[in-house]
Every structure is written in structure tokens, then in C-alpha cells.
Amino acid sequence: MIGTVIKSTGSWYSVLLDEGEKEILQCRIIGKFRLNGMKVTNPVAVGDKVRIEKESEGGIIKEILDRRNYVVRQSPRKKHQLHLLASNVDQAFLIITIKSPKLKQGFIDRFLLMTEPYNIPVDIIFNKSDLLNDKDRELYTYLKDIYESIGYHVHLVSSLESESLEEVKKRLEHKITLISGQSGVGKSTFVNTILGTEDLRTTVLSDYTGKGQHTTTFAEMLFINKTSFIIDTPGIKTLSFNHLEPMDVAHNFKEFFQASKQCKFADCLHRDEPKCAVKDAIETYEISELRYFNYLQLLEEIEDQNYWERNSNT
User: Fold this and answer.
1) pLDDT tens digits for range 164-199
2) Phi then psi for 168, rounded to 5 degrees?
3) Structurally, what CATH architecture does the domain formed by 246-311 represent?
């Protein structure tokens, strides 16, 4: 039997069967699954298509079918392993705020480093517009110009004002959308407003507990309608990358990669190398100096991990 994983709690997975009356089975896994040879803390992700064997109560996941993409990060608890956020998504929405909590702009580029390797389109959604003063709005405009110039959609919304979400709602239609963001940015309120409910849990198809819960503690697929789905994920505190090499970072800052075709050296990391087209583009304001600063921080962080740390998950 084939189905889609719609909820992951770590040890059990809710699987919506493709055939019949859209039955949901509580399934477990036997044995170990790996991600392209790398260790993962959660081998099965929400969004996965799986082959299961039905039991008297629930089922066993026997096989994970080929993923067309996935979003992965360094595990926050086991730094030598990876954590799957979701798979088989059409796009991602990153929810951030300028205040309450205060903006950590570097987080935007870290998140994009997760999605860019699989060419997953990202909408950057600045929430809590009702809290912003004129100076805050100037900062929003500055960041909007940076990210729209390199191909990302940027929105300013208030999850408390449904009308401000109309454009965002249209972009959810006929898509599977990963919703992510740091803790405290109002992600649950955003999702509640999109779904038109005050309690996220009352709309979850896979809910068996009957208990109201406002803070997302596990990944879960929510159903907007028959063709539109949200994968809601727990709030992220930090993002690190034990599975990347410096050149992976250079290739996945997409405007850097485009400009690097004119660099003198094919393996240019855009730091001290001569005749670097990326540094030239920064001088002429074609590439954001802010993005470049975040890029250098990521390079340094990855290089500070020794070789064993960066390869211990293989």
C-alpha cells in the first residue's frame, strides 16, 4: 500500500493512504534508513511517499519512495547528524519579523542555503507589520529590494489582519508549501489565519489526541483544500550545516554563482583570490554587501569545523 506521511512525532508516523477512503494509519519503521549515505535523526519526513505493510493495528513503513526534493538541516541535538524538515514540497514560506522578536537577518540567508540546492522557490514573509514604525518600514524596503532583485518573493503582513494575507493565500493554491521560521515570529498565528481557525489542532486531519495545542512541536501536513497543503514545522532556534563544504555555500548563493562564471579561478571562494567577479560586483553594488557578509560568516563557520566533524555523518 502507498501513502503520504502527514505527521511525524519521532517514533510514529501518520500515513494517509492513497487508495480507498483516505484512511490514516499510525505506522512505525523497522530497521535503519539513511539519506544519501548520511545519518539522520528522523529517517522519514512529512511529505514522504512510502510503501507500507498493514498490520492488525496500524502499519510498518517498508520503503521510502524516491523524493523529488527535501529540506535538511544539522540536527540541533546531535550535531554530527542531520534532521529532515520535509520532503516533496513545491515551495517554502519563511516567516520572519523585524521586531518582536528582533530581526536576525543572517537567518534568512541560512534558510535559503537549505532550499537553494533543490531549487525550491521561497517567499520571505515579514510578519507583524502592525508593530512597525517608519524606521522599521525603511529596513523592510531595503531588504525587500535585496531579495526581490535575486528572485525571491517578499511580503509584509500581519497575521492578525486577514486582508493583508490575500496575496499570500493565492500563492498557496495548488501547492505543497513548507512553512518555517524562528521561534516567536507568529508562525502558528499565521497558519491559523490562513486556515481560518483559532485552534490549529482542530483542523489537522491526522490529529488523534483531541488535545488543543497552540505550539507546534512536530512536523505536520495541514489541508487547506483538496489541492493545497501546508507542512507546518516547529520553530527553529539556530541553523547550522555540518553536511556542507565551503564550495557548496559559494554555489548556493545564487547571484554569487551567476557572477562567479567570470572569476579567474573555477574554485574561487570570493575572498582573497585575484580577479574575483563577485567582489567586483559588490564594489559596483550589483551584489548586496549584506549578503556577502553573511556568506563570509557561513564560510568561516563551516571551515571552523574540522574535517572529521564535517564528514562524521557519512
Assistant:
1) 999 999 999 999 999 999 988 999 899 999 998 765
2) -65, -40
3) Orthogonal Bundle (1.10)
Angle between helices 106-115 and 289-304 (to 10 degrees): 70
For 205-249, write each residue's pLDDT tens digit. 334 333 333 455 688 999 999 899 999 998 888 788 888 899 999
Q: Which amino acid is at 9?
A: T
Q: Which residue has the cell 554555489?
A: 251
Q: Rounded to an integer, what distance in angstroms lies between the CA atom of residue 247 and that of residue 236?
A: 25
Amino acid type, 195: L
User: Rg for the chain (alpha carbons), in Å?
Assistant: 20
The CATH class for the domain spanning 71-232 reads: alpha beta
The ranges assigned to domains in the chain are: 2-67, 71-232, 246-311
What is 2-67's CATH number?
2.40.50.140
